[in-house]
Amino acid sequence: MTKRFFDVVCVGIGMLLLFPVILTVYLLIRVKLGRPVFFRQRRPGINGTPFEMIKFRTMTDERDENGELLPDDVRLTKFGAFLRSTSLDELPELINVLKGDMSLVGPRPLLMEYLPLYSERQYRRHEVRPGITGWAQINGRNALSWDEKFELDVWYVENRSLWLDIKILLLTVLKVVKRDGISHGGEATMPRFEGSSDTKEKNR
After folding, report:
1. How many CB atoms lie within 10 A of CB 37?
2. pLDDT digits 0-9 by tens, 13-46
């Protein structure tokens, strides 16, 4: 209850202070990328329950001759890359926090298709609401391997507290300013998760 109250109060104040920034980004996306301005996608929330996550759109809808979307690194525009590097694309997720789908701090919500690929330990990341930022985000973000990222997520679940959330939020500001860990190797963001070593062994 304390965490939820903290989230709502912080988001309420944050949305008032950030309204000019949110409006400016909205208008720039409308001009540079057109409609839709928002990217909406079903993501797993607490206990794996799906919800619709909202972000600012950063990619075009360019497709090949077969109608398939082109790779992320082709569709990601320079403006979109700037939004990602500054985390401005994440601002609409404040709405998800107000709705109770997300928290300010928690493991990042990934793809629904990853759910059956987690090991039993990795699945523990869904014992809490997903967050806009988290322990993994201030300790490497997309520069981490999947195993490292999930281990940090589970560490947060096991050690979560209001004071840890405040620490993570403060360190997130520093990370955003430095633009650390935006991408992984040669990828636009992160390579796809193909499953943990434990899960792969079970499926053999």
Report:
1. 15
2. 999 999 999 999 999 999 988 889 999 999 999 9
β-partners of residue 103 are 131
Tell me the C-alpha distance between 74 and 61, whole Å. 10
Kindly state the average pLDDT of the residues 163-175: 92
How far apart CA 47 and CA 35 sit, in angstroms, is: 33
Q: 77 with 61: CB under 8 angstroms? A: no
DSSP 8-state assignment for residue 75: H
Identify the three-state secondary structure at position 152: helix
Over residues 74-88, the pLDDT tens digits come to: 788 889 989 988 889
DSSP bridge partners of 133: 105
What is the mean pLDDT of the segment spanning 161-184?
Answer: 80
133 three-class SS = strand
Cβ(115)–Cβ(44) under 8 Å? yes
Neighbours of 143 (CB within 10 A): 15
| Residue 182 pLDDT greater than 60, yes or no | no
Q: With beta carbons less than 8 A apart as the criterion, state whether 42 and 109 touch.
A: no
Q: Which residues contact 195 (CB under 8 A, 6 or more apart)?
A: 117, 203
Query: What predicted TM-score, i.e. pTM, was given to this entire model?
Result: 0.85
Residue 177 CA, distance from chain mean position: 17
Q: Report the interhelical angle of 162-178 vs 2-32 (nearest 10°).
A: 20
The residues, ordered by sequence, that sit 6+ positions from 111 with a Cβ below 8 Å of its Cβ are 43, 193
Is the predicted pLDDT of residue 126 greater than 80, yes or no?
yes
